[in-house]
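Box S1 | Example of a co-folding query
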Amino acid sequence: MSCRFSGTIQSTAAWLGLLPLGLLLCTAHATAATAPVCSDGAAPSPTMFVPRSTPAEMILDVSWFVWAICSLIFVIMASLMLWCIIKYRRSAGDDKEAPQIYGSNPIELAWTVVPTVIVFILFLVSARTIFEIEKTSAPENSLNVTVVGHQWWWEFDYPEQGFVTAGELHIPITRNGKPTSVYLTLESNDVIHSFWVPQLGGKNDVVPNHINHLWLEPNMTGTYVGQCAEYCGTQHANMLITVVVHEEAEWNTWVSNQQNTSIASASASDGHDLFLQTACINCHRVRGTPANGDFAPDLTHLMSRATIGSGVVANTRENLLAWVNDPQDIKPGARMPSMKLTPQEVDQIVDYLLTLK
Ligand code: HEC
Ligand SMILES: [Cu+2]
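Box S1 (continued) | Returned holo structure for copper (II) ion
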């Protein structure tokens, strides 16, 4: 079974509450995920069973605890039922009615008090974890990033570093040599979305005119995947999240590159001029040029991303040509129209886009 496949089945099994199946597949998957193929810490598909961050570990711990209690109850109840069915089955020639018993205070008390206590314990454990995970103020030494949900892409705003990017969130594993956490401020530009990267943390709604927070504390480098988890329109399923957890030095390099403004490249000056004369600039920003739209992804460092359209296709020349020609071919419904450019114009603009490193 491939990693991806088992991840999906296993999460589905877990969601359906199929405990034994979930457990079985999970063990198989955890082994697969720690095998060399997945050695950078990331599972190839979103799974909460291979946590790589403190809050994700806390969530998994609570899940195991709940499942352990529930399966214990299941085993006890099923065994008692089986025992009763077999022991008290009707034997041949016995057609007397069994003795009828009404009202027993000790028994009724037991089956009221015991479940109440169990529910109370589950409530306390879950509530404690929820409060821990939904930190309302930034932990010390944390990196602050504002996440803005848009139909159908993610904007990542680094206020302290002074730049904005899209689709892919890059975070360090340490800062100044100390383990760091990431404090996300979740906002929406339009409808309700939900931010969820199962290996790194909890799931939290991204609501218009409301601010939510989420806290991540990665403990292994790698590229983690997630997606919008609240139906938000046609392209909801293509609103993917990539989180890259870097070593500190690598992250610093990435940050200083993002902080640079665009330098017009002489080699693509036709495309540069055309881009600036087209409506592209009303929606997109390229820092250092007159393009200052804020409706759509910031393109200043477009080529530093592995994908475009929040994960819908790889960021290659071919896909950029197809996208600029007509985004609706790739992401039907996307909030970017075809600009009806000639093939030559598309070519020139893409040559320019390729210089936005
Ligand atoms: C009406 C606003 C609008 C105009 C005009 C527009 N775009 Fe876009 N563009 C968008 C939106 C919205 C997205 C994000 C779509 C999504 O992922 O769902 C986008 C995405 C992109 C992307 C992918 C970026 C990424 O990181 O995912 C590129 C490249 C791009 N546009 C280039 C262009 C070019 C070049 C032009 C001009 C020829 C242009 N756009 C005109 C709204 C616009
Ligand atoms: Cu969404």
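Residues 149, 152, 193, 228, 232, 236, 239 surround copper (II) ion (ligand 2) (CB under 6 Å). The chain has a mean pLDDT of 87.
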